[in-house]
Amino acid sequence: MENILTNIIFLPLVFIIIMGLFKVPLHILRVGALSVSLMVFILVLVLTYHFDPDQTMQFVHIAPWITSYGITYYIGVDAISLVLLLLISFLMPLLFIFLWNEKRKGFFYNLLFLQMGVMGVVVSLDLVLFYLFWEMMLLPIFIMIGKYGYGMRQFNAMKIIIMTVLGSMAMLFSILYLGYEYLQTTGAWSFALSDLSTLQFDPKTSIVIAGGFLLAFAIKIPLVGFHTWMAPAYSSAPTPALVILSAIMAKLGIYGIWRFGFELFEEPLLFYTPLFITFALIGVIFYAIHAIMEKDLKKMFAFSSGSHLSLIALGLIVANTYSWNGSLYLVATHALNSAGIFLMIGMLGMRLKTITIDDLGGLASVAPRFAFLFAFFALGIAGIPGTGGFVAELLIIIGAFQYNIFVGIISATTMIAAMIFVFWMLQRTIYGKTNTVTADFKDLRISEMFILVPIAFLILLMGVAPSLFTPLFETNLEILLTQLGGVL
C-alpha cells in the first residue's frame, strides 16, 4: 500500500508516454484510456477500503526530491482529499465512454494529463509539489477550450489562463516566503506542510501571506468579483472540459482553503472571515439572479454552480460541525449533479446544434428517457428532497444559522432561487409542444444511459441513505475542528 498513491497519480502519465512514443492508432488509444481510468478507479476503491475514518492523514509517502532546497515528494490522504479522489476516479471513465466516437486524439491525452494533475493536487503535502500540480492541470484545460471549444474559444481560453495564473503567482510568492522564513528560523529549507504550519508571524505579515493563497483559491472557486472568466469559459468549453471545470476543478479552490488556509493561517482567517462571508453571501444571490436571467443552458448552470460553490465556501468558512459536513457533502453531490447536467447539455447540443432555451420545448413527448434524467439532474442541483444536494444544503444552512441568524436566512435563499430558475427552465425545455427544432429529437441511446444512470443512482443513494457515506469523513472533520477550536 506504500506506493498506491504514486500509482494513482502517475499511471495516466505512464500511459501517455507509452502511447505517444509508439504513435498508436485511435482505437487502441481509446480502449487504453478507458482501461487506465478504470484501473485508477479500482486503486482508489482499494485505498478507500483500507482508509481508517478515525485517523487523519494516511498513506503518507515522503521521498527526497530537490534536497538542497528542502523540496520533497510528500503525499498523503485524509477524508477531504479522499472524497475528491473518489469523485475524479469515478467520473473519468464515464467521460472516456462519452468520448468513444471522438476522432481527435488530443481529447484523450489531455484528459489523462488533467487527471494526473488533479490527483496530484489533492494529495500533495509539499507546497512546491502542490503548486506544480496546480499549474499542470491548467494546461490541458487551456488546450481543450482553445483548440476544441466553441465561439470565442481562444479568447476565453486565454482569459481563464491569465486570471488563474495571476492568482497562482500570488500563491507562489507566499509559498516561497514561507520556505524562506523556515530557513531563517531553523537554518534549513522546507516546503512541507507539517513543517511550515509551525511558523509564527506577526499579524500583518500573516494576513499578507494568507492573502496570496486566498486570492488563488477565490479565483478558482470562483467567488463573486473573481468570476469573470467563468461564464465565457463554460460556454466555450467542449463537454469533457466543461464537466471537469464544474465538477472537479472549481472544487479545488474549496479544497485549497480547507487544506492550507486552516492548517497554515488559522489566525489570519479570522481577519478574512467577514470578507469571505460577505463575498459568499453576495455570490449566493448574485449568481442565482444571473441563472434566472440566462437563456443559454451552459451559462445558466455555470451561474448555478457559482451560487452553490459560494454556499460551499460559506459553510467552510463558518467552520462548525454542521457546515463542514454539509460543505464536503455538497462538494460531492454538486460534482455529480453538475457532471450529469453538463453531459446532457452536451448531448442536447450534439443533437440539435443549439442549447438556447427559446429554441427548445416538448422534449418529454419525443424523448421521455432524456426528459426524465435531465429533470432529475436539474432538480438535484436545486436540492429537492430525496437527493444528496438537499441533505448537504440543509446541513450548511443549519450551520449558517448556528453561526449567525442573518447569515442563515441569506444562505437559505439558495434553495428558493434554484427552484425558481430550474422549474422555469424545465417548463420551457421538456414540457409544452415540440417545434421544428425538437420534433425529431432522438432519445437517449443505451451507451448514453450507461453513462448517466450510475451518476443518477449515486445522487439518489446519497439523498435517501446519507448514513452510508457520512461515516467516511465525519470523524476526520470533527478532529480537524477540535484542533481549530481555540482559534475559530
Write the layout of secondary structure elements.
Layout (H helix, E strand, L loop, with lengths): L3 H19 L3 H25 L7 E9 L4 E7 L1 H20 L6 H19 L3 H10 L1 H11 L4 H34 L6 H4 L6 H18 L9 H7 L2 H26 L1 H28 L3 H22 L2 H32 L10 H4 L1 H15 L5 H16 L1 H25 L16 H19 L9 H10 L5
Antiparallel strand pairs: 1-2
Helix pairs in contact: 1-2, 1-4, 2-3, 2-4, 3-4, 3-11, 3-14, 3-19, 4-5, 4-6, 4-11, 5-7, 6-7, 7-9, 7-10, 9-11, 9-12, 10-13, 11-13, 11-14, 12-13, 12-18, 13-14, 13-17, 14-16, 14-17, 14-19, 16-18, 16-19, 17-18, 17-19
Verbal overview:
The protein is mainly α and 488 residues long. It is built from 20 helices and two strands. It has a two-stranded antiparallel ribbon. The longest helix has 34 residues, at 153-186. The protein starts with a helix and ends in a 5-residue tail after the last helix.
